């Protein structure tokens, strides 16, 4: 019954329009371009940006809506997947029914609309995770989830695209903010200190560890706090938070009942000519070599799945110490979005090193799935 919803609530002409726009070519932008363009948010620049998004967003959203309808193993029919697909179709309809943007008043109205679209999609990640959960529950228990390559590849494309869509909308919306802070261009900080961001992210992760376990290992940060480069602080905060949270959990669980003092988690920030690298090292016992490839998949977590505990995702956005196994793969996508990467190297029986590479040049185009 639920699978019929697309045809019932969305007209045939809209679905045809989705397929037409889904075939159009996407246009990628770079961090440097966003930064240079947004450094002068004049009415003319905001108008150009609005007109670009008016054409670009429907293309990106249509591609995802089509894909959500054609997933393998019956994932498209799962109630949570249908919910996500309907959000994408609603957003596509809103964008397509918005008239051509001719002046700054049109642009202001358009900005309010895309702001609402961004809010509509706030819960896409946990809802899609729930869809995958629903799929797993109905599958043969003998199936090895890590082998479901098509699902992993789809989720990589899907979440990477989502990062791009949210970056474009968020950047445009933020450019309207009167009196921005010094060195801030929309979402981008032109003089971001990675040491400072790592410090904030670590404090947040440590607070969660304290709340969950009653104690937390120390965190030592090495690097020059005065070193800065242009980047999106919220993206870096998310990645470092996720990696430090994992390290704290591993160390805490390994030393919880030990009479030894838990060793600190170490964060090292290194500045290269091309890359800024952040290394997060722990002595939490490491990951088995057979388990290492799994940490970048979406169907694997060593922790209890919080989606089993609550399914009403509309109201709950709590952060737990261990997520639904999405933190690491999504952090890697955030790194890749601006030309970086995330690598994890482990010594079983000792600990894990995560290397977060960030492009310092800011000139790589968005990867467009």
Q: What is the CATH homologous superfamily assignment of the largest domain?
A: Alpha-ketoacid/pyruvate dehydrogenase kinase, N-terminal domain
Q: What is the domain total for the residues? A: 2
Radius of gyration: 21 Å
How much helicity do the residues have?
40-55%
In CATH, what is the class of the largest domain?
Answer: Mainly Alpha
Give the oligomeric state of the chains in this entry, treating copies of one chain as homo and distinct chains as hetero.
single chain
Q: Tally the helices: what do you get?
A: 11
Shape: globular
Topology:
Elements: H1 5-9, H2 12-22, H3 31-38, H4 43-68, H5 79-96, H6 104-120, H7 124-138, H8 149-174, E1 184-185, E2 188-192, H9 194-213, E3 219-222, E4 229-231, H10 233-255, E5 265-271, E6 275-282, H11 327-337, E7 341-347, E8 351-359
Helix pairs in contact: 2-4, 4-5, 4-6, 4-8, 5-6, 5-7, 6-8, 8-11, 9-10, 10-11
Structure report:
- It is a single chain.
- This protein has helices at 5-9, 12-22, 31-38, 43-68, 79-96, 104-120, 124-138, 149-174, 194-213, 233-255, 327-337, and strands at residues 184-185, 188-192, 219-222, 229-231, 265-271, 275-282, 341-347, 351-359.
- Mean pLDDT is 89; it is low at 308-322.
- It has a five-stranded mixed sheet, covered by helices on one side. Strands 1-2-4 form a three-stranded antiparallel sheet, with helices on both faces.
- Strand 1 (184-185) and strand 2 (188-192) form a beta hairpin.
- It has eleven helices and eight strands.
- It is an alpha+beta fold and 369 residues long.
- It starts with a helix and ends in a 10-residue tail after the last strand.
- Helix 2 packs across helix 4 (43-68), helix 4 runs antiparallel to helix 5 (79-96) and helix 4 packs antiparallel against helix 8.
- The chain is 49% helix and 12% strand.
- The protein folds into two domains: 12-184, Alpha-ketoacid/pyruvate dehydrogenase kinase, N-terminal domain (Butyryl-CoA Dehydrogenase, subunit A, domain 3); 193-309 and 319-359, Heat Shock Protein 90 (2-Layer Sandwich), CATH 3.30.565.
């Amino acid at each position: 019954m639920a699978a019929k919803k697309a045809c019932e609530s969305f007209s045939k002409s809209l679905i045809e329009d989705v397929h037409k726009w889904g075939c159009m070519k996407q246009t990628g932008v770079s961090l440097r371009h966003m930064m240079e363009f947004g450094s002068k948010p004049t009415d003319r620049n905001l108008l150009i940006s609005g007109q670009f998004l008016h054409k670009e967003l429907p293309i990106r959203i249509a591609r995802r809506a089509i894909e959500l309808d054609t997933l393998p193993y019956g994932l498209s029919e799962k109630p949570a997947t249908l919910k996500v697909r309907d959000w994408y179709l609603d957003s596509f309809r809103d964008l397509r029914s918005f008239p051509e943007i001719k002046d700054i008043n049109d642009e202001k109205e358009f900005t309010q609309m895309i702001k609402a679209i961004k809010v509509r999609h706030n819960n896409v990640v946990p809802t899609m995770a729930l869809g995958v959960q629903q799929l797993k529950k109905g599958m043969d228990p003998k199936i090895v989830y890590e082998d479901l390559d098509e699902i992993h590849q789809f989720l990589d494309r899907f979440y990477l695209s989502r990062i791009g869509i949210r970056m474009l909308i968020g950047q445009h919306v933020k450019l309207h903010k009167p009196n921005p802070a010094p060195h801030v261009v929309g979402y981008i900080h032109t003089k971001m200190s990675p040491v400072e961001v790592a410090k904030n992210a670590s404090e947040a992760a440590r607070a969660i560890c304290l709340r969950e376990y009653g104690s937390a290992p120390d965190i030592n940060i090495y690097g020059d706090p005065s070193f800065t480069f242009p980047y999106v602080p919220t993206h870096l905060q998310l990645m470092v938070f996720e990696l430090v949270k994992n390290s704290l959990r591993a160390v805490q669980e390994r030393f919880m009942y030990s009479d030894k003092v838990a060793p600190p988690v170490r964060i090292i920030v290194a500045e290269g000519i091309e890359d800024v690298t952040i290394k997060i090292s722990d002595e939490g016992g490491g990951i088995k070599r057979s388990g290492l490839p799994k940490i970048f998949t979406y169907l694997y977590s060593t922790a209890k799945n919080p989606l089993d505990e609550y399914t009403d995702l509309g109201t709950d956005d709590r952060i737990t110490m261990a997520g639904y196994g999405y933190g690491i793969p999504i952090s890697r996508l955030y790194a890749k979005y601006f030309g970086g990467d995330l690598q994890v190297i482990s010594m079983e029986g000792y600990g894990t090193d995560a290397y977060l590479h960030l492009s310092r040049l800011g000139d790589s185009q968005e990867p467009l799935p």
